[in-house]
Sequence to fold (468 residues):
Amino acid sequence: MQGIADLFQKYFSFSIIREILPFLLKGALLTVFFSATSEIIGIIIGLTTSVIRVTRIKVLSQLAVAYVDLFRGTPLLMQIIFVYYALPYLGINLPATVAGIVALSVNSGAYVSEIFRAGIESIDKGQTEAARSLGMSYMQAMRYVVIPQTIKRVLPPLTNEFVALIKDSSLLSVIAIAELMRTAKEMMTWKMNPSSLTAAAIIYLIITLPLTRYVSYMEKKLKKSEA
Amino acid sequence: MIKIVDLHKKFGHLHVLKGVNLEIKKGEVWVIIGPSGSGKSTLLRSINLLEEPTSGKIFFDDLEITSKKVNKDKVRQRIGMVFQSFNLFPHMNVLGNVTLALLKVLKMKPEKAKKIGVGLLTRVGLKDKIEAYPNQLSGGQKQRVAIARALAMNPDAMLFDEVTSALDPELVKEVLDVMKDLAKSGMTMLVVTHEMGFAKEVGSHVIFMDEGQIVEEGIASELFENPRHPRTKAFLDAVLY
Ligand SMILES: Nc1ncnc2c1ncn2[C@@H]1O[C@H](COP(=O)(O)OP(=O)(O)OP(=O)(O)O)[C@@H](O)[C@H]1O
Ligand SMILES: [Mg+2]
Fold:
């Protein structure tokens, strides 16, 4: 019994949580800002590179493949550190905020690229052929026929990727960005009590839960519509 | 109007078209019959440049469309194609399907495109379905939309690849009727089909293909009555019972 009482005292101290909540909410706002911005840029990068890959334009598509492999195959933490600490040696000095967005966007772009590629390839070849037989160019067929149909299919995996990105944005704490995770750690040191981590975890859940629910809902709906 | 000279197509080691020669004049309706795998679809797809010939040439009104220099998109605008599997765009309604190319390829004004679309859908008997989505249509209706969609570009010739094969028997007639009308209106047509009744009634010429070659070709009425080649005869006996 004593153990449980201690656990509560240590990890669920309401008085501390009440006091630090405004700071945490500010951190949460940054978390949402960084992940949302990076997701949007990531979608632009991912969509572009996926189209390049399915067209099989020689050099370009090989570059796109290399990009996806590189950023999916190495830890995000390493990518963040590299962008912030190593690029200055090449004369590229980015403020932490920009470096953070760059690293997250480029990383999520690689995952989004994979999602879109799978989406595009899941559309029946007959769709492109019908579009081409009407005289549309390859790009027109992609833009007006194939990609609009992939949107519905990629929405669930894309949202999953967004959830992952929200959690991964906690890695930005290593370049001193005061997002939710870093704020929580600072509060922990300040109060010498880890209740801030508990509160942060709950905030992460409040942000991600609607998204994960939405994915399940969409997937069910999709299954029905394609059955 | 369409002239094919010694057309060969290989898929890897598979030699699918082995020297096809053909000349089709304006307003003729050519029916292509032949066993499965004989290369009928590949021939049609080559004419629409969906397949690249391994060798040989295809001319369309004196323009060599198999030439590297030719703009394939422009050529395809002049040759309509209808597929066995409809391939309607499921994210657009019927009118959207029919007008898409008018809007995006020809950059036509929406009102004008709509007028053409409604006109064509009326012609194929689907005026009351213009707002419907493809998944709300029967197979026969879908195929009629696909025909209207191809006609929207006002092509000089139309290719039909077994367009009634995926349909329930009772829906075949409505599609064939549309094609009959089209033939009567003077459209140049190439039709791959198993519908021998249609072939006899509407076809001006018939080609019997087997193993990548044209075994026999001729005026429809003559070929059906008096097939000269034993393989043609065997095939016709089999499909006509
Ligand atoms: N893209 C392709 N790659 C490899 N082989 C192919 C391809 N397309 C067609 N073939 C082969 O070419 C041959 C001829 O095919 P095609 O579709 O032209 O025949 P078909 O006469 O239309 O037959 P069916 O009556 O069954 O439609 C078949 O053996 C087929 O497997
Ligand atoms: Mg075929």
